[in-house]
Specification:
The chain is mainly α. It has 18 helices and no strands.
Length: 408
Protein backbone atom coordinates (compact mmCIF):
# COMPACT_ATOMS: atom_id res chain seq x y z
CA UNK A 1 0.00 0.00 0.00
CA UNK A 2 2.84 2.37 0.84
CA UNK A 3 4.56 1.82 -2.49
CA UNK A 4 1.27 2.40 -4.30
CA UNK A 5 0.91 5.83 -2.67
CA UNK A 6 4.46 6.71 -3.63
CA UNK A 7 3.80 5.83 -7.25
CA UNK A 8 0.56 7.78 -7.21
CA UNK A 9 2.33 10.87 -5.95
CA UNK A 10 4.45 10.87 -9.10
CA UNK A 11 1.31 10.81 -11.24
CA UNK A 12 0.13 13.96 -9.49
CA UNK A 13 3.61 15.40 -9.89
CA UNK A 14 3.29 14.95 -13.63
CA UNK A 15 0.09 16.99 -13.72
CA UNK A 16 1.91 19.82 -11.95
CA UNK A 17 4.53 19.77 -14.72
CA UNK A 18 1.81 19.86 -17.39
CA UNK A 19 0.06 22.71 -15.57
CA UNK A 20 3.29 24.73 -15.42
CA UNK A 21 3.79 24.38 -19.18
CA UNK A 22 0.14 25.16 -19.87
CA UNK A 23 0.08 28.34 -17.76
CA UNK A 24 3.48 29.47 -19.05
CA UNK A 25 2.43 29.10 -22.67
CA UNK A 26 -0.92 30.79 -21.98
CA UNK A 27 0.97 33.85 -20.78
CA UNK A 28 2.78 34.18 -24.12
CA UNK A 29 -0.33 35.62 -25.80
CA UNK A 30 -0.92 38.24 -23.09
CA UNK A 31 0.57 41.74 -22.89
CA UNK A 32 3.93 41.55 -21.15
CA UNK A 33 4.20 42.98 -17.65
CA UNK A 34 5.83 41.65 -14.48
CA UNK A 35 3.19 38.98 -13.73
CA UNK A 36 2.94 37.55 -17.24
CA UNK A 37 6.74 37.61 -17.55
CA UNK A 38 6.94 35.63 -14.32
CA UNK A 39 4.41 33.12 -15.62
CA UNK A 40 6.50 32.65 -18.79
CA UNK A 41 9.23 31.08 -16.64
CA UNK A 42 6.89 28.25 -15.65
CA UNK A 43 7.04 26.58 -19.07
CA UNK A 44 10.80 25.83 -19.35
CA UNK A 45 10.87 24.80 -15.69
CA UNK A 46 7.93 22.47 -16.29
CA UNK A 47 9.75 20.88 -19.22
CA UNK A 48 12.73 20.08 -16.99
CA UNK A 49 10.33 18.49 -14.51
CA UNK A 50 8.80 16.42 -17.32
CA UNK A 51 12.14 15.02 -18.46
CA UNK A 52 13.46 14.24 -14.97
CA UNK A 53 10.18 12.54 -14.10
CA UNK A 54 10.35 10.57 -17.33
CA UNK A 55 13.74 9.17 -16.36
CA UNK A 56 12.46 8.18 -12.92
CA UNK A 57 9.38 6.39 -14.19
CA UNK A 58 11.06 4.68 -17.14
CA UNK A 59 13.76 3.34 -14.82
CA UNK A 60 11.14 2.23 -12.27
CA UNK A 61 9.14 0.35 -14.89
CA UNK A 62 11.68 -1.18 -17.22
CA UNK A 63 15.24 -1.20 -15.87
CA UNK A 64 14.92 -4.35 -13.76
CA UNK A 65 13.59 -6.53 -16.59
CA UNK A 66 16.29 -5.26 -18.97
CA UNK A 67 19.05 -5.85 -16.40
CA UNK A 68 17.71 -9.38 -15.77
CA UNK A 69 17.70 -9.98 -19.54
CA UNK A 70 14.14 -11.20 -19.38
CA UNK A 71 13.11 -12.58 -22.80
CA UNK A 72 11.23 -9.91 -24.70
CA UNK A 73 12.10 -7.12 -22.22
CA UNK A 74 13.43 -4.72 -24.85
CA UNK A 75 10.58 -5.51 -27.19
CA UNK A 76 8.01 -4.90 -24.44
CA UNK A 77 9.73 -1.63 -23.58
CA UNK A 78 9.68 -0.44 -27.19
CA UNK A 79 6.06 -1.45 -27.79
CA UNK A 80 4.87 0.03 -24.49
CA UNK A 81 6.47 3.38 -25.24
CA UNK A 82 5.17 3.36 -28.82
CA UNK A 83 1.67 2.60 -27.54
CA UNK A 84 2.00 5.35 -24.98
CA UNK A 85 3.17 8.14 -27.29
CA UNK A 86 2.28 7.47 -30.90
CA UNK A 87 -1.54 7.25 -31.17
CA UNK A 88 -2.21 10.75 -29.83
CA UNK A 89 0.90 12.04 -31.58
CA UNK A 90 -0.55 10.96 -34.94
CA UNK A 91 -3.92 12.53 -34.05
CA UNK A 92 -2.17 15.86 -33.50
CA UNK A 93 -0.18 15.60 -36.76
CA UNK A 94 -3.33 14.83 -38.76
CA UNK A 95 -5.19 17.71 -37.12
CA UNK A 96 -2.28 20.05 -37.84
CA UNK A 97 -2.26 19.06 -41.51
CA UNK A 98 -6.01 19.62 -41.73
CA UNK A 99 -5.83 23.05 -40.09
CA UNK A 100 -2.91 24.03 -42.30
CA UNK A 101 -4.89 23.12 -45.42
CA UNK A 102 -8.05 24.86 -44.23
CA UNK A 103 -6.41 28.07 -43.00
CA UNK A 104 -3.38 28.43 -45.26
CA UNK A 105 -4.26 26.34 -48.32
CA UNK A 106 -2.82 23.30 -50.06
CA UNK A 107 0.45 25.05 -50.92
CA UNK A 108 1.23 25.38 -47.20
CA UNK A 109 0.64 21.65 -46.75
CA UNK A 110 3.10 20.83 -49.53
CA UNK A 111 5.58 23.32 -48.06
CA UNK A 112 5.68 21.19 -44.88
CA UNK A 113 7.70 18.57 -46.78
CA UNK A 114 10.33 17.14 -46.61
CA UNK A 115 10.46 18.11 -42.92
CA UNK A 116 7.11 16.44 -42.33
CA UNK A 117 8.71 13.04 -42.96
CA UNK A 118 11.01 13.56 -39.98
CA UNK A 119 8.04 14.63 -37.86
CA UNK A 120 6.10 11.51 -38.82
CA UNK A 121 8.90 9.42 -37.29
CA UNK A 122 9.29 11.91 -34.36
CA UNK A 123 12.90 12.72 -35.28
CA UNK A 124 12.48 16.47 -35.73
CA UNK A 125 14.43 17.52 -32.62
CA UNK A 126 17.43 15.33 -33.42
CA UNK A 127 18.72 17.60 -36.18
CA UNK A 128 18.18 21.37 -36.59
CA UNK A 129 17.04 21.57 -40.22
CA UNK A 130 16.11 19.45 -43.22
CA UNK A 131 18.81 21.19 -45.34
CA UNK A 132 16.15 22.30 -47.84
CA UNK A 133 14.26 25.05 -46.01
CA UNK A 134 16.03 27.63 -43.86
CA UNK A 135 13.87 26.96 -40.83
CA UNK A 136 13.95 24.79 -37.75
CA UNK A 137 12.81 21.27 -38.52
CA UNK A 138 10.49 21.27 -35.51
CA UNK A 139 8.39 23.96 -37.21
CA UNK A 140 7.98 22.11 -40.52
CA UNK A 141 4.27 21.60 -39.90
CA UNK A 142 2.35 24.59 -38.52
CA UNK A 143 0.84 24.18 -35.04
CA UNK A 144 3.21 21.34 -34.07
CA UNK A 145 6.23 23.13 -32.64
CA UNK A 146 5.53 21.72 -29.19
CA UNK A 147 6.02 18.16 -30.46
CA UNK A 148 9.80 18.67 -30.24
CA UNK A 149 9.61 17.24 -26.69
CA UNK A 150 8.12 13.97 -27.97
CA UNK A 151 11.04 13.68 -30.38
CA UNK A 152 13.44 14.37 -27.51
CA UNK A 153 11.71 11.72 -25.42
CA UNK A 154 12.14 9.23 -28.24
CA UNK A 155 15.88 9.93 -28.19
CA UNK A 156 15.92 9.09 -24.47
CA UNK A 157 14.19 5.78 -25.17
CA UNK A 158 16.78 4.94 -27.83
CA UNK A 159 19.53 5.59 -25.27
CA UNK A 160 17.81 3.80 -22.38
CA UNK A 161 19.26 0.28 -22.87
CA UNK A 162 22.76 1.76 -22.81
CA UNK A 163 21.89 3.85 -19.74
CA UNK A 164 20.66 0.71 -18.00
CA UNK A 165 23.86 -1.15 -18.84
CA UNK A 166 25.97 1.63 -17.30
CA UNK A 167 23.88 2.77 -14.34
CA UNK A 168 22.84 -0.69 -13.12
CA UNK A 169 26.45 -1.28 -12.04
CA UNK A 170 25.95 1.12 -9.11
CA UNK A 171 23.99 -0.26 -6.16
CA UNK A 172 25.28 1.38 -2.97
CA UNK A 173 23.86 4.71 -1.87
CA UNK A 174 27.31 6.30 -1.88
CA UNK A 175 28.12 5.25 -5.44
CA UNK A 176 24.71 6.37 -6.71
CA UNK A 177 25.11 9.78 -5.05
CA UNK A 178 28.54 10.14 -6.65
CA UNK A 179 27.06 9.33 -10.07
CA UNK A 180 24.30 11.89 -9.42
CA UNK A 181 26.86 14.59 -8.63
CA UNK A 182 28.93 13.69 -11.70
CA UNK A 183 25.81 14.00 -13.87
CA UNK A 184 24.98 17.45 -12.47
CA UNK A 185 28.58 18.64 -12.86
CA UNK A 186 28.70 17.27 -16.41
CA UNK A 187 25.48 19.14 -17.26
CA UNK A 188 26.94 22.40 -15.94
CA UNK A 189 30.25 21.91 -17.73
CA UNK A 190 28.73 20.93 -21.08
CA UNK A 191 26.25 23.80 -20.99
CA UNK A 192 29.01 26.25 -20.04
CA UNK A 193 31.21 25.06 -22.91
CA UNK A 194 28.23 25.34 -25.21
CA UNK A 195 27.52 28.92 -24.10
CA UNK A 196 31.10 30.15 -24.58
CA UNK A 197 31.33 28.46 -28.00
CA UNK A 198 27.86 29.25 -29.30
CA UNK A 199 28.87 30.86 -32.57
CA UNK A 200 31.23 28.13 -33.82
CA UNK A 201 28.80 25.42 -32.69
CA UNK A 202 25.81 26.97 -34.43
CA UNK A 203 27.90 27.46 -37.58
CA UNK A 204 28.90 23.79 -37.39
CA UNK A 205 25.45 22.28 -36.84
CA UNK A 206 23.12 24.75 -38.55
CA UNK A 207 24.97 27.28 -40.74
CA UNK A 208 21.85 27.95 -42.85
CA UNK A 209 19.69 28.96 -39.87
CA UNK A 210 19.50 32.39 -38.25
CA UNK A 211 21.74 32.30 -35.19
CA UNK A 212 18.83 32.79 -32.79
CA UNK A 213 17.12 29.68 -34.20
CA UNK A 214 20.24 27.54 -34.16
CA UNK A 215 21.00 28.68 -30.61
CA UNK A 216 17.51 27.71 -29.46
CA UNK A 217 17.87 24.32 -31.08
CA UNK A 218 21.25 23.65 -29.52
CA UNK A 219 20.46 24.89 -26.01
CA UNK A 220 16.74 24.10 -25.69
CA UNK A 221 15.17 21.78 -28.26
CA UNK A 222 17.95 19.29 -29.02
CA UNK A 223 17.92 16.08 -26.95
CA UNK A 224 21.68 16.14 -26.46
CA UNK A 225 21.54 18.79 -23.74
CA UNK A 226 18.36 17.30 -22.25
CA UNK A 227 19.79 13.82 -21.76
CA UNK A 228 21.31 14.92 -18.43
CA UNK A 229 17.79 15.67 -17.17
CA UNK A 230 16.54 12.21 -18.11
CA UNK A 231 19.67 10.67 -16.55
CA UNK A 232 19.00 12.57 -13.33
CA UNK A 233 15.58 10.92 -13.12
CA UNK A 234 17.05 7.46 -13.72
CA UNK A 235 19.69 8.04 -11.06
CA UNK A 236 17.28 9.33 -8.43
CA UNK A 237 15.02 6.33 -9.06
CA UNK A 238 17.99 4.00 -8.58
CA UNK A 239 18.69 5.81 -5.29
CA UNK A 240 15.02 5.50 -4.29
CA UNK A 241 15.08 1.74 -4.94
CA UNK A 242 18.30 1.35 -2.94
CA UNK A 243 16.58 3.00 0.04
CA UNK A 244 13.42 0.86 0.01
CA UNK A 245 14.74 -1.53 2.66
CA UNK A 246 15.54 1.37 4.99
CA UNK A 247 12.63 2.88 6.93
CA UNK A 248 13.24 6.63 7.38
CA UNK A 249 13.42 7.80 10.99
CA UNK A 250 12.01 11.01 12.42
CA UNK A 251 15.31 12.91 12.30
CA UNK A 252 15.93 11.89 8.69
CA UNK A 253 12.40 12.90 7.73
CA UNK A 254 12.74 16.31 9.39
CA UNK A 255 16.08 17.01 7.71
CA UNK A 256 14.73 15.92 4.34
CA UNK A 257 11.66 18.13 4.81
CA UNK A 258 13.92 21.17 5.27
CA UNK A 259 15.95 20.21 2.20
CA UNK A 260 12.73 19.73 0.22
CA UNK A 261 11.67 23.26 1.12
CA UNK A 262 15.05 24.51 -0.11
CA UNK A 263 14.57 22.51 -3.32
CA UNK A 264 11.13 24.06 -3.80
CA UNK A 265 12.65 27.51 -3.39
CA UNK A 266 15.24 26.49 -5.97
CA UNK A 267 12.47 25.65 -8.44
CA UNK A 268 10.81 29.01 -7.78
CA UNK A 269 14.17 30.72 -8.30
CA UNK A 270 14.52 28.93 -11.63
CA UNK A 271 11.12 30.22 -12.74
CA UNK A 272 12.33 33.74 -11.94
CA UNK A 273 15.62 33.21 -13.81
CA UNK A 274 13.75 32.03 -16.90
CA UNK A 275 11.44 35.07 -16.77
CA UNK A 276 14.00 37.89 -16.58
CA UNK A 277 16.62 39.31 -18.91
CA UNK A 278 19.94 38.16 -17.54
CA UNK A 279 22.56 40.90 -17.05
CA UNK A 280 25.38 40.49 -19.62
CA UNK A 281 28.06 40.46 -16.91
CA UNK A 282 26.53 37.41 -15.24
CA UNK A 283 24.81 35.86 -18.24
CA UNK A 284 26.99 32.77 -18.62
CA UNK A 285 26.97 31.89 -14.90
CA UNK A 286 23.23 32.47 -14.47
CA UNK A 287 22.44 30.56 -17.67
CA UNK A 288 24.35 27.53 -16.35
CA UNK A 289 22.65 27.93 -12.96
CA UNK A 290 19.25 27.93 -14.67
CA UNK A 291 20.07 24.47 -16.02
CA UNK A 292 21.83 22.90 -13.05
CA UNK A 293 19.70 24.19 -10.15
CA UNK A 294 16.30 22.93 -11.37
CA UNK A 295 17.61 19.47 -12.26
CA UNK A 296 19.09 19.05 -8.78
CA UNK A 297 16.04 20.56 -7.07
CA UNK A 298 13.46 18.59 -9.06
CA UNK A 299 15.38 15.35 -8.54
CA UNK A 300 15.35 15.85 -4.79
CA UNK A 301 11.66 16.78 -4.75
CA UNK A 302 10.90 13.63 -6.72
CA UNK A 303 12.69 11.49 -4.16
CA UNK A 304 10.88 13.38 -1.40
CA UNK A 305 7.35 12.82 -2.72
CA UNK A 306 8.11 9.19 -3.61
CA UNK A 307 9.71 8.15 -0.33
CA UNK A 308 8.58 10.39 2.53
CA UNK A 309 5.15 10.97 4.02
CA UNK A 310 4.14 14.60 3.70
CA UNK A 311 1.19 16.85 2.99
CA UNK A 312 2.61 17.38 -0.49
CA UNK A 313 2.57 13.65 -1.20
CA UNK A 314 -1.00 13.35 0.06
CA UNK A 315 -2.02 16.25 -2.16
CA UNK A 316 -0.36 14.73 -5.22
CA UNK A 317 -1.99 11.36 -4.47
CA UNK A 318 -5.57 12.64 -4.34
CA UNK A 319 -7.91 10.87 -6.79
CA UNK A 320 -8.52 14.06 -8.75
CA UNK A 321 -4.79 14.65 -9.07
CA UNK A 322 -4.35 11.09 -10.33
CA UNK A 323 -7.04 11.61 -12.97
CA UNK A 324 -5.36 14.84 -14.09
CA UNK A 325 -1.95 13.18 -14.07
CA UNK A 326 -3.26 10.39 -16.28
CA UNK A 327 -4.47 13.02 -18.78
CA UNK A 328 -1.25 15.07 -18.64
CA UNK A 329 0.03 13.83 -22.01
CA UNK A 330 -3.23 14.87 -23.68
CA UNK A 331 -3.05 18.18 -21.81
CA UNK A 332 0.38 18.82 -23.27
CA UNK A 333 -0.57 17.81 -26.81
CA UNK A 334 -3.80 19.80 -27.00
CA UNK A 335 -2.84 22.97 -25.15
CA UNK A 336 -1.51 25.09 -28.08
CA UNK A 337 -4.70 24.53 -30.09
CA UNK A 338 -7.02 25.43 -27.23
CA UNK A 339 -4.94 28.43 -26.17
CA UNK A 340 -5.42 29.79 -29.69
CA UNK A 341 -9.14 28.94 -29.69
CA UNK A 342 -9.79 30.67 -26.35
CA UNK A 343 -7.64 33.59 -27.47
CA UNK A 344 -9.66 34.11 -30.63
CA UNK A 345 -12.95 33.77 -28.77
CA UNK A 346 -12.32 35.93 -25.71
CA UNK A 347 -9.06 37.83 -25.59
CA UNK A 348 -10.31 41.00 -27.30
CA UNK A 349 -12.86 41.39 -24.52
CA UNK A 350 -10.70 40.22 -21.63
CA UNK A 351 -7.78 42.52 -22.48
CA UNK A 352 -9.88 45.52 -21.45
CA UNK A 353 -10.30 44.05 -17.96
CA UNK A 354 -6.67 44.46 -16.96
CA UNK A 355 -5.20 41.95 -14.52
CA UNK A 356 -8.62 40.40 -13.90
CA UNK A 357 -8.97 39.76 -17.63
CA UNK A 358 -5.53 38.20 -17.86
CA UNK A 359 -6.20 35.84 -14.99
CA UNK A 360 -9.65 35.04 -16.38
CA UNK A 361 -8.10 34.18 -19.75
CA UNK A 362 -5.60 31.80 -18.12
CA UNK A 363 -8.39 30.24 -16.07
CA UNK A 364 -10.52 29.68 -19.19
CA UNK A 365 -7.57 28.13 -21.01
CA UNK A 366 -6.72 25.79 -18.14
CA UNK A 367 -10.35 24.74 -17.69
CA UNK A 368 -10.97 24.09 -21.39
CA UNK A 369 -7.68 22.21 -21.89
CA UNK A 370 -8.23 20.02 -18.83
CA UNK A 371 -11.83 19.13 -19.74
CA UNK A 372 -11.01 18.40 -23.38
CA UNK A 373 -7.95 16.35 -22.44
CA UNK A 374 -9.85 14.23 -19.92
CA UNK A 375 -12.30 13.33 -22.69
CA UNK A 376 -9.61 12.46 -25.24
CA UNK A 377 -7.64 10.51 -22.65
CA UNK A 378 -10.58 8.26 -21.79
CA UNK A 379 -11.95 7.84 -25.32
CA UNK A 380 -8.83 7.98 -27.52
CA UNK A 381 -5.50 7.81 -25.71
CA UNK A 382 -6.14 5.06 -23.15
CA UNK A 383 -8.14 2.75 -25.47
CA UNK A 384 -5.51 3.07 -28.23
CA UNK A 385 -2.74 2.21 -25.78
CA UNK A 386 -4.60 -0.85 -24.51
CA UNK A 387 -5.35 -1.98 -28.05
CA UNK A 388 -1.70 -1.77 -29.11
CA UNK A 389 -0.46 -3.49 -25.97
CA UNK A 390 -2.85 -6.37 -26.49
CA UNK A 391 -2.09 -6.53 -30.20
CA UNK A 392 1.63 -6.84 -29.57
CA UNK A 393 1.18 -9.04 -26.48
CA UNK A 394 3.14 -6.82 -24.12
CA UNK A 395 4.05 -8.55 -20.84
CA UNK A 396 1.08 -8.10 -18.51
CA UNK A 397 3.18 -7.27 -15.46
CA UNK A 398 4.88 -4.41 -17.28
CA UNK A 399 1.53 -3.19 -18.53
CA UNK A 400 0.00 -3.12 -15.05
CA UNK A 401 3.03 -1.33 -13.62
CA UNK A 402 2.96 1.30 -16.35
CA UNK A 403 -0.75 1.96 -15.87
CA UNK A 404 -0.28 2.59 -12.15
CA UNK A 405 2.72 4.91 -12.30
CA UNK A 406 3.26 8.48 -13.32
CA UNK A 407 2.69 8.55 -17.04
CA UNK A 408 5.52 9.53 -19.33
Amino acid sequence: MEAQQQIHSLTGFRFMAALMVLVGHSATVLPQWWLTRMLLGLAPTGMILFFVLSGFVIWLNYAESIVARRPGALRDFAVARFARLYPMYVVILVLAFMLTGIIHGGAAVMDAFPGAFAMFFALQAWVPTDLVDNRLLIFSIPYTGHLWSISTELFFYACFPMIVALLSRFHSKASILIVAMINILALGLVFHLCMINLHPLTMLFAPSLPETDSTMWLTYYAPYMRIFQFLAGCIVCQLYLSLLSHVPGRMETNIVRILALAALLGVIGTVILFSISLPPKWYSILAVLSQVAPVAAVSFLMLYVARYRSKLRRLLSLPKMLALGDASYSIYLWHPFLIEAVRNATLGILLSWGIAGHLTFIGLVVGSVVLFSLVTYHFVEAPARRFLRRGFHVNSNAAVMDLHTAKT
